[in-house]
Amino acid sequence: GGASPRRARGPEREGRLMGGKDATIGHWPWQGSLRLWGYHFCGASLLNRRWALSAAHCFENNRNPFHWSVQFGELSAAPSIWNLQAYYNRYNVDQIFLSPHYLGAPVYDIALLKLSSSVTYTKYIQPICVMASISEFENRSDCWVTGWGDIEEELSLPSPYTLQEVQVGIINTTMCNHLFSMPDFRIDIWGDMICAGEPQGGKDSCFGDSGGPLVCEKKGLWYQVGVVSWGVGCGRPNRPGVYTNISVHYKWIREVLSVEPARVEPRSF
Prior knowledge:
Blueprint: E1 3-5, E2 21-22, E3 31-36, E4 39-48, E5 51-54, E6 68-72, H1 84-88, E7 90-98, E8 111-115, E9 143-147, E10 164-171, H2 173-180, E11 193-197, E12 213-218, E13 221-232, E14 241-245, H3 250-259
Antiparallel strand pairs: 1-13, 2-10, 3-4, 3-6, 4-5, 5-8, 6-7, 7-8, 9-10, 9-12, 10-11, 11-14, 12-13, 13-14
């Protein structure tokens, strides 16, 4: 099978991690659901009150910011229409910035989203840290990926569409290249790609998780290391998931965030 991006397929909008379990509310407070026409399409993460991070390939067919929104603070990818709290924590996208190096997957697959209004932080909505180098997280076996993607190839997350979490290890590039050079499928892991999963398979991101965060904890603080990008199937042995290494884009992220000043809005009480 060929490599495939991990955004939602067609009108199906749910999805989840493979080998994952239900997350608890507030455990991953930076997790967002990037929504097209109001339906879950990709994952996202919150960087600060006005900015979210996702994968560039989520916007391949639609770059009109007015069609997109990001939902924060909810465990379900499909909160009830009567859930006013969800409604208040859904933010419209004002501008979409794709990496200037992005030419279509699989490399430089990262996007910044400027939100149209300032995010209200709560117990369940908090930003994630990013860092200029992730070298200290290489070979860590206790990182986590979260999302609403498929639970296995061709199997969508069932109702009530609860956010899934799965523990994965960061696999160094040399090892990952070795795995992907196995017979039947050859692909080069290069540039800003990093791999995570477990060699025997079974724990992985899948369709519908694209754009979501791969995070590692250090001294009580959580850092986003990668953005869910693509994979060969889901959870197959020797085919770890491939993520965009955020630290490669650290300078670009800082530049975009500083050039686009967020309008200071009066605090509303």
